[in-house]
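Re: the pair you flagged

First of the two:
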Amino acid sequence: MAADEQPEPGSSHEYLERPRDGNGKFARSMDSVRRDAAAAEYWADNPGTTYQQIADMFGYYDRSQAWRGIQSAKRDVALPAVTKLRQTESEQLDALYLMAMEIIERNHVMVSHGRVVCGDDGQPLPDDGPRLQAIQTALRIRDQYQNLHGLKQPAKVEHSGGVRYEVVGVDAEDLT
């Protein structure tokens, strides 16, 4: 069915065979992407249509699969905008990171009460404060970049030990 065609209510559709990836999980085919888009368009144009009606019209297995299809179509529509936003944010973070790196690479002298502080040899004393602040800023920028692109792995929590179940009001001896 083309995306611009609207099925007649009550029409029969064959259920689309859903392809699977190498791990046996369902993968979206171009047919299912088109079907999801057509279902989402029909659903938007026909307020009051139930997900079961969408499932019957577009060949989804049940209403929950129809709902998931429409949600997938919404994500597909938003994807180009989200990609562009990520690119813009990345460029801004890159520019800020370069500024921080320039500050890190500069030589900073210690200043006190508006005057350069010199050592016993008459040379200005180095000030590491601005460099350390720029390093902290660069690390925060990298953290934001990793968050933006989903590069951080979720923390794993391991638990060892057992679980004990107790049924209140039932004597354990009665169960044997």
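Second of the two:
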Amino acid sequence: MGGAVGELPLVGCVAGTFDLFHVGHIDVLERARRHCDRLVVAVLSDDWAAAAWGGRPFVPLLERAQIVQHLRCVDAVVAVDDLAPGWLSAVPEVRTVFAATGTDGVLGAAELTGVPATMLTVLPAGRESRSTILRAAIDQRQSRSSNVA
């Protein structure tokens, strides 16, 4: 991308759990990276996921963060405990936050409360995994989260 001389690089952020990592996650992260100079991924903690879904992730935070960190399209990873006001302070110089529609494990616009609308860019969903075992686990987790009030 690159900005004008003297302009700060555009830092973008994607927040999510990235549990049961699959091709749809890669699609969203690569799309986000095309819209910024640096991509920072905020990986949400196990406790956040338990509160949001009613159960802990299948893959622990450290492993999820390590998986995401090794992608070419990702410049940095930060762990985030919750999305309370000010959570973006963990991502210095962020100028845009990417939301995804319909990609499990990546937050959508409705879940990114507190992010100013002017900073939000909504990306289309990525592909779904064709693995029947992985899809069954994701569907089980999503049905569990729909029962959390």
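The two ends are 41 Å apart (CA to CA).

-B.
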